[in-house]
Amino acid sequence: MKALLAPLLVTSTMAFSPTPRTSPIKSRLSMLPSKNSEPSFFPFETTESSSMFRLNAAPPKSNEEVSDGSADVRQLLGVKGASGTTDIWKIRLQLTKPVTWIPLVWGVMCGAAASGNYHWIWNPFDPNDRDVALGFEDAAKGFVAMILAGPFLTGYTQTINDWYDREIDAINEPYRPIPSGAISEGQVIFQIWFLLLGGLGIAYGLDVWAGHGFPTVLALSVFGSWISYIYSAPPLKLKQNGWAGNYALGCSYISLPWWCGQAVFGSLDRPVYFILPILYSIAGLGIAIVNDFKSIEGDRELGLNSLPVAFGVDGAKWICAGSVTLTQLGVAAYLYSIGEPTYAAILLALLLPQIYFQATLLLPDPIANDVKYQASSQPFFVFGILATALCLGHHDFAA
User: Fold this and answer.
1) One Pfam family this chain carries (predicted)?
2) How many angstroms separate the CA atoms of 132 and 197, rounded?
3) N or C: which end of the chain has fewer CB within 10 A?
């Protein structure tokens, strides 16, 4: 999910590509609104080109704006085909890309399920899980954790990513709020700090609420926020390297919210609680590649070594399909090995339609079918993650 999550939440000693070339797009940036006098704020560097954006510029109309009546909704969700707007609050929301909150919110749910300690308000399947007061408290904790993972830390991740992608967006998506001049430099920086500091405050509050001796949720949030920063910002800019960037993205969208949800309701006291989310992050790497297909032109022009640039479209699409499929086969094998054949069978059943959509959408034309493939395949993938989490919460590791 250009993100980190982000938000929330992998560093590695991988080599990074050279600093991206900026000269090819100077002519495009020169057509942006004239320089304003907005101040800059440390640590987010500003350049002459970044100061060219001004508030209240006439909203450009995307060349790809849809005509099916959904353009306004797409603007609020932060997806392609959106309409233009001068409403600053709609622009702020668009920068956070609400459509990308969903995997993080789902990850928190999976972590709560994996803890085995989430209580329903009134569980129809378990007469021992019908404490209404405890159920309401757990529902409130879960909701706050979702707000942390979604609007705040994913919103922070998406906003900072758009800030550091303003030059490449001038090529790929010039109608985005920052390169179009629909929002000022100062307003973007304020939003970044507000979401980051607000998210860290919420994380600490969850630690206090859960009675943690060590602030686990805060530590995860700090780590995830740092990963989000180095994913987008120089000099590291993990997204310059296809392997490091896409794995960081996958980890942030799967592992970190899972660990957050599990820490709020339980503990991270077994290696498997780390291993399985990390394995699923490998599949997340494959899913992240799908988002790179649409920006291959700008990535190549700016020297960003995304996997579609490094391996070509044909090579990258097979890496995508292979990582998603092999990871889930491995997880299913593990579930079977610990005596959970039913959950293993459920995971395999959810994998079959994903393979079908790979064969019919992803592999034939990943660029034309990127959105359709994700919409068709990913629901089965995320339900597979939930099935795995429920299995961990159900399984008696002491037996």
Assistant:
1) UbiA
2) 33
3) C
> What is the predicted pLDDT for the residue at 301?
79
Q: How far is CA 378 from the centre of its chain?
A: 13
Mean per-residue pLDDT, 59-75: 60
Sort residue 273 into left (φ over 0), alpha (ψ -120 to 50) or beta: alpha
CB atoms within 10 A of CB 318: 15
- pLDDT computed for residue 193 by the predictor: 98
HEC sequence for the chain = CCCCCCCCCCCCCCCCCCCCCCHHHHHHHCCCCCCCCCCCCCCCCCCCCHHHCCCCCCCCCCCCCCCCCCHHHHHHHCCCCCCCCCCHHHHHHHHHCHHHHHHHHHHHHHHHHHHCCCCCCCCCCCCCCCCHHHHHHHHHHHHHHHHHHHHHHHHHHHHHHHHHCHHHHHHHCCCCHHHHCCCCHHHHHHHHHHHHHHHHHHHHHHHHHHCCCCCHHHHHHHHHHHHHHHHHCCCCCHHHEHHHHHHHHHHHHHHHHHHHHHHHHCCCCCHHHHHHHHHHHHHHHHHHHHHHHCCHHHHHHHCCECHHHHHHHHHHHHHHHHHHHHHHHHHHHHHHHCCCHHHHHHHHHHHHHHHHHHHHHHCCCCCCCHHHHHHHHHHHHHHHHHHHHHHHHHCCCCC
The count of structural domains within the chain is 1
Which residue range is the domain that position 127 belongs to? 23-394
Q: For residue 5, tell me if it sits in a domain.
A: no
Token duo for residue 3: 């993100």
| Sequence-ordered list of residues with C-beta below 8 angstroms from that of 334, at least 6 positions apart, any chain | 276
* pLDDT at residue number 69: 66
Any domain includes 185: yes
In the chain, what's the furthest Cα-to-Cα distance?
68
User: For residue 144, is it within any domain?
Assistant: yes
Q: Point out the least confidently predicted range of 5-19, 77-91, 137-151.
A: 5-19
Distance of alpha carbon 196 from the chain centroid: 15
pLDDT of residue 14: 35
What's the rounded mean pLDDT across residues 371-381? 91
Residues whose CB is less than 8 angstroms from the CB of residue 225 and which lie 6 or more positions away in sequence, other chains included: 7, 8, 153, 156, 157, 196, 199, 200
Within a domain: 15: no
What integer pLDDT is reported at residue 338 of this predicted model?
A: 95
